[in-house]
Amino acid sequence: MKSVILKSYHFYKTVFSSHTSVKLFVYRLLYPQVKWGKNIRLNGSPIFRLSGDVEFGNDLIFTSHTRYNMVGICKPCSICVLSNASLKIGNNSGFSGVSIYSANSISIGAYCNFGGNTSIWDTDFHPIDFNMRKDDNASVLTNPIVIGDNVFVGANTIILKGVSIGDRSIIGAGSVVTKNVPADQIWAGNPAKFIRNLS
User: How far apart are CA 53 and CA 82, in angstroms?
Assistant: First the structure.
């Protein structure tokens, strides 16, 4: 059944490449367990692999091609949620070429903006111990990520597992966020460090 849906989607993608309604119709068929908000806009074609508990808010924008954002998007938006994981995105948030990978839990608030090529990963993907990396079934460390409301994340930033970012905070472009960021602060760098308070 999925192969038929995907073949139909590729046909419609060719004919109606700019029509968000067609893309969302296909995604709703592929992922009926997902809670899809209203007025979601797809600029370009994202890549979704959604097995877990997923909730998309209203008025979201996923930009997946440089023609819609000249910042220099390197790839389409890609969102993967594993079967025992969750992803929740609040209303009115925007993403350009984002990579979201949830093996545990990722929560993103409302009115957030994520610059081009931002990555949000709640997993190490592979064990740290080199001996464990030889075992395909070895356990991998995961920790939830929580991003508050009105957060702005600059382009090419990586947000790693176990991090929380407080409301209204700003992450400078090219940062690697490894520690919790309180509300109303600017952090930047690799690893990201406190720059100053916003108020």
Answer: 9
* Amino acid identity at 68: Y
For the question of whether the overall pTM of this predicted structure is more than 0.85, the answer is yes
Residue 114's alpha-carbon distances to 3, 53, 158, 174, in angstroms, are 32, 22, 11, 12
N-term to C-term CA, the chain:
54
Active-site pick, 10, 19, 65, 126? 126
Distance CA 152, CA 115 (A): 8
- Please give the full DSSP string across 144-169, using - where no structure is assigned: -EEE-TT-EE-TT-EE-TT-EE-TT-
Beta strand 185-188 with 193-197 is antiparallel
Contact residues for 147 (Cβ-Cβ < 8 A; gap 6+):
106, 107, 108, 109, 112, 120, 159, 164, 165
Mean pLDDT by 10 residues, the chain (199 residues): 68 55 87 95 94 97 87 91 97 97 98 97 88 77 96 98 98 98 98 96
Count of CB atoms situated within 10 Å of the CB of 93 = 24
Supply 78's token pair.
């890609």
Q: Is 19 tagged catalytic?
A: no
